[in-house]
Amino acid sequence: MSQATFDDDELFDEAATDMRADVERSLEQAREALPEAGAVWETDADNTLGVLNGLKTALDVGDAEEALRDAKKWYTMGKRADAFEDADDLEAAITEVEELIADIEAAHEAVGDLTGTIPAIKNALEDADEDE
């Protein structure tokens, strides 16, 4: 029975390839978890509050943050181990997804603020109309 032998370099190269694949897979999962453009753009609500509630729901990043965290974890591990021959593309992809998530979360927060403010403004305007 023959036993395969691996030298350290061969094992390291294999591990580096696996780490790159893990980063790429996690980035893909993060992108897939992001909201679809149509869900953010289209609406069938009857009023402003309905539009805002729908938009707030559509701007949920879901599991994208967790998948991005996994990508960053494996990227950091590989980078510190100097396992990647060229990791510029991975770093750029991580930054792109990270910025997109941050933008979506900022919009989600802004819409949340409006969702709380618009009904109060409507009520104040109705009260002002009644006072006349």
Automatic annotation (TrEMBL):
Pfam families: DUF5790 (PF19103)
Keyword Coiled coil: yes
Organism whose genome encodes this protein: Halapricum desulfuricans
Lineage, uppermost ranks: Archaea, Methanobacteriati, Methanobacteriota, Stenosarchaea group, Halobacteria
Protein name per its UniProtKB record: Uncharacterized protein
InterPro entries for this protein: DUF5790 (IPR043808)
Coiled coil: 80-110
Keywords, ordered alphabetically: Coiled coil
Domain of life: Archaea
